[in-house]
## 1
Amino acid sequence: MEQSSYEDTRPHAYEDETVEWIAEDKFGTVLARAVHEDKLDRDDFCRKFADSEVAKAFENGNPDYICFMSDTELLDMVLGRKPRDSGGMYPFFNNETFMGSVYVFVQWRLNLPFKALFEACPPSELVKYRFSKYWGIYAEEFLDVFRKYLPEEDFDGIADTEAD
């Protein structure tokens, strides 16, 4: 993995390996299933997610949710329905799986509630960066994107070392 251009002094809910390998992928597949299987609007789903116990569990690094529940179980919890069989791994990398990774990484790095991220830069706005230099690369590069939408004080404790 490429070395981060951001120096980070904030405490986080879980270790970076967890966010990298589990949490980003998990929320990405939850968002993808919501959009592609349940035909939900990205922005509407993210608002529901932000108000759910699942979002709070991700924000606090709860391994029962992040590590031990399937993407379909999490989706069903967010939507308030009875859990169903997962049907296995979500097989596609698409806009939603990548955006889910970005949101989890930015939430983890800035230690902000998902609700604040979705209000500042909803998926309908984030997807506009699809053909930018950022799309499909490391989620950490999206800190630069979120600097356009969030107050600078949300980045206290995170120094952009490339600007030095």
## 2
Amino acid sequence: MVRRNYKDRDIACPFWRGEEENSISCEGLEPGMKTVCCFASKERKAGYAMRRCKNIHGYKLCRVAQALIRKYEEE
């Protein structure tokens, strides 16, 4: 089951769109797309989420977020 509403969770990243047991879904680089980051385990996913998705400063270090920030800066 995909969890979709980041406002109901402690997610800092504005590009976060949902998650499953071993993956995190983010906004895509093109309209109608999404980016899915798959992890080897739910523990690895949880660690990444704590360092990046749930961290107000950490999400800016995520390569997906960096690409999306550049996308909006170029528009």
## 3
Amino acid sequence: MKVIPIQIIEGLRGKICSHAKMYMRQNRKNNKVFTGNLCNPFEGEASASQKAGRTKFKQAWAAVAAVFEDSAKLDEYRAAFEAQHKYTSLRGYIFAKEYEKL
């Protein structure tokens, strides 16, 4: 009989369980696992500035989705992305540029 080992957990991300305060994340490049503890969770109503930030974030992601549907804009962003070295993903680069516009 031949035993073939399998990888049970491919990656870790997020909470361990719904009531835990510890978060886990695995770096995909070097496979290191990072943990963080949520010491003082906020449970109140979001402030006006928090709501505005959430709205701005949603608008930026909607703009990113629109860019990916427009091939001409996507080609422009792709050329600019290739010329820079700060961002590692095209989607992240487009998000940063669209977020700056808002």
